[in-house]
Structures are given as structure tokens and as C-alpha cells.
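Hey team,

Filing this mostly as a record. A colleague (T.K.) asked me to run one chain through the structure pipeline before their review meeting, and I want the input and output archived in the tracker in case anyone asks later how it was produced. No errors, nothing strange. Just documentation.

Input sequence:
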Amino acid sequence: MILAADAQLRLDANWIDYLLIAFYFAFVIGIGILARRSVSSSLDFFLSGRSLPAWVTGLAFVSANLGAVEIIGMSANGANYGIPTVHYFWVGAVPAMLFLGVVMMPFYYGSKVRSVPEFMNRRFGSAAHLVNAISFAVAQLLIAGINLYLLASIVEVLLGWPLWVSLVVAAAIVLTYTALGGLSAAIYNEVLQFFVIVAALLPLTLVGLNKVGGWDGLKEKVAGSPGGGEQLSSWPGTALSGFDNPVLSVIGIVFGLGFVLSFGYWTTNFVEVQRAMATNSMSAAQRSPIIGAFPKMFVPFIVIIPGMIAAVTVNELVQFKEDGSGGATYNDSILYLMRDLLPNGMLGVAIAGLLASFMAGMAANISAFNTVFSYDLWQTYLVKDKEDSYYTAVGRVAAVAATLIAIGTATFAASYSNVMTYLQTLFGFFNAPLFATFILGMFWKRMTAAAGWSGLVAGTAAAVGVWVLSEDVLGVIGIGEQGGAFVAASAAFVVDIVVSVVVSLATEPKPEHELEGLVYSRSERTRRHEEVSRLPWHQQPTRLAGVALALVVLLNILFW
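Output structure:
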């Protein structure tokens, strides 16, 4: 993957760059040490004592997602597909983030559950809870491995450190601050990492645009490159979706990415939801994903555009895009651009920004994993009724174990020339069926406990089946890559819904009084937990979400 172009990508970093990187590492660990002082209970360790303000958790919400796959994967998509990549943000993220804030956070926060699987336990019982907890834990280990592998690979390529050294150093730093300070350390570091990432990528974007003659110059060069003018329009996005038919392409993007994958990820993924659950009030919990939506919608300008610039200015990528020859891949896009455009000093900031993105993603996976493992697996099924400090200790051990396992799973992503394909495949397996179960169970009180776990299993099996039949494995179905992931996620959603409905009609539902606060029709008190109308308009979740929705619609129109 990235290692194929080692010699070409090696950066001429000097002592100034290393000093900046060392200072950043020291600062990150220092935050973990300071956060350790505020940990006096398991709630402090796993959920920051539900005490953080909305602006902190909002930035952490988007930063936790702004990891290795986001930076490397989306710049790779920018180089490969161009502007249609914005669908991952404006269709495949922001609407779901707003839905999470307005509709779903009242259920999570109002019920005072400590994790998403715990909500599943209350709604559907232990079988669905166990399936969800195990699948989530496995997914986090795999995704943490992606972040760690990319981080170590890039450090090896850019700075010449051996891969094993990079793996150990990166894992040790993330483990140190997550094991010391728990979720608070992860969140405050994610806020810091957000600003470091922007400080690294914004200058790279501006310098790159200047090199190609501004936006007009970039459009001219992209139009003349392989892929042509289609790379400058977001719709119909046939190259991105894998469908030659424009209508099918739009349906695939809107339903497969914009609904199933997006809502499945943002509304049920505890990595993200955990940040909002760490806030100090219901309205703050609702505002966290909504606040995060504002920077999220502008991330494409510092991630996708550099990839597009690299595809038309970096000789190795120009050659690769024309005929597939040479040692470069699209995953190398932002690295090549750093090599060609940034002077020493700024190079150190850029490297620190990449390291920040990888550590933010990995720390988010580790902190979510140790919460679910400790609360939903260890405490629920293995060792019950111990003192609170015992489960905090279990969480720290789980963080160590997860980091070691992530080192072992780190090479799984190596066979993908575009890591976004791997990630979307995982989301189809784990998030799409979970979203189907959640959304049906939340709005249909007749759905039963048996339907909860059987729908999850059937949906996951459907996604795996489509993946096996796709061009990526057996080639029976003539679609693969990210389009294949969209189809697999859609199959998982539909099969989950069908199986859940059939099983629900054949089994006995819970009594209605047991569903209080767990389904929409029985949650009026939960949804009206605070008198929101008394808050200033910018603290009212629905109004803030309306502003964000209007902005993202405008962006979609401007880049149509």
C-alpha cells in the first residue's frame, strides 16, 4: 500500500520538525496526566462524569471521526473521484448527525444508559444486547487497527522509522493518555487534535491551490485529466457509486450511503454517541452532534481538495491515474503533496497534524471499546456486583488489551489501495443492521426482543453474503469497491427490517409500561426533559439544527 513508494515519499525533516512533533507528543501525554486527577469513579473514567460542556464534546464529536481513514481515505477519494466525494460529508454525515441530536439523543441521555448496547438491553433484552456488544467490540478493534497501521506506515515512510518502532511508539502514546485519564483525556486531546489537524491541512490546501492557479486553474486541470469533467460535479457520482446508470447511482448514494450507512454509523455508533453522553445536560447532549456538524461540512475543503490537487500536480499520481503504473496509490495523495509543497517547520506541523488525526481516531475506538467491554460484557455477563473501582481497573486493562490486539489487526487494511473501501465494508457489516433494528424498535412498539437479536444476525449475514458475492471476492455480482459496500449495507438494512417484522408478528411483545422512554410513543417525558424554549436560540437544538441543515443544502446546490 503506502510502503511501495518509500523512497519517493521520504521527507527531509530537520530538528525543527522533530522538536515540534516531540512537543506535541509531550502535550498530549500531559493532558492524560492532568485528566487522571479527575477520575474518582467508573462514571468519570468511562463518561467523564457527565460533566463536559457542549462545545467541547461537539468538537470532540467531529475530531473522533477525523482520523486516519478520514484524512488518508477522503484525500484518496478526492484524487480518485474528485468532487463527488463530498457526498460522504454533505449526504453521508451531516443529516444523520442532525437527526442524532434532535431525535435520538433524548433516548440515550434521558434513559441514563452508559452505552448504546445497554440501551439495546433495555429495549430488546440480553440476546440482542450480547450480539450488539460483541459486534461493536470486534469492529472497534478492526478500525483501531486501521488507524494504527496507517499511522505507523506513514511514520516509517515519511521519517524512516522502522514499522515496528512506529507501531509501538504510536500505540504507547495513545494507550498512555486513554488508560490514565479515560474518556476526558481522549475528549480534550481530540479538541486539541482538531485544531492541530486544521493548522496542518489548511495551509497545505491554500499553497496547493496557489500552485495550480486557484480554483479555476484546478478545475481546468481536473477536467483535462482521466475521469474528466465528471470529477467536478457532485451528481450523479457514477464513478464513486460504481453504477453506470445515473439514476441507480443517485439511489445508491442517497439510500446506501446517505441513509443506511450514514444513519447507521452516526446514530448507533457508540464511538460518537459516547462523546455526547459525557455532557452536563440534555440540551448539551443534543447540541454536541449538531455543533460537530458545522465543522464537519467544511472538512471537505481541506481534505478532498488536496487530493484533487495531488492527482493533477504530483507526477507519480498523474502517471498512476493515467495507466495504473508506478509505485504510488491514491492513499499517498496528501503525503506527496506535503513532500512537494511544505518547507521545514510547516512540515513538522503537517506531520503533527497527521499524527493527531490517527491518534484521535484510535483513541476514540479504544475509549469506546473499553466502556462496552467493561460495562456490557465483563460486568453484565462475567463478574457482577463488584465495587466501582474494580470496573475502572477493568477498563484500564481493556485499554491495554485493545491496543495490543489493534497492533495484531493493523495489517488487515494493507490489501486495500483505498482504505475507505475497507471501512465502508465494515460499516455495512456492523452498523447498517444495527440501525435497522434501532429505527424500527424506536418507532414500532410491537417489535419484540426475539426480533431484536434475530434481525441483527440476519442483517449482518446478508451484508457478508453480498460482500462475498461482489467483485471484491467471488465476482458473482458485477459491482465492488465502495459501490459494493453501499449494496451490502442496503441488503443488511432491508433483510434486518423484513426478518424483524416477521419475527415480531410471531412472538410476544413487551408490555407497554416496560417501554417507557424506550420508544417514541412512550417518551414524551424524556423528550421534554428540559424547558428548551427558555434557552437562547443558539442553545436550542432544533433551531441550531435548522441552521446547519440550511447550510448543507446550500453547499449541495453550489457544488451540484
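Quick notes for T.K.: Residues 163-211 form the longest helix (49 residues). The chain has a mean pLDDT of 81.
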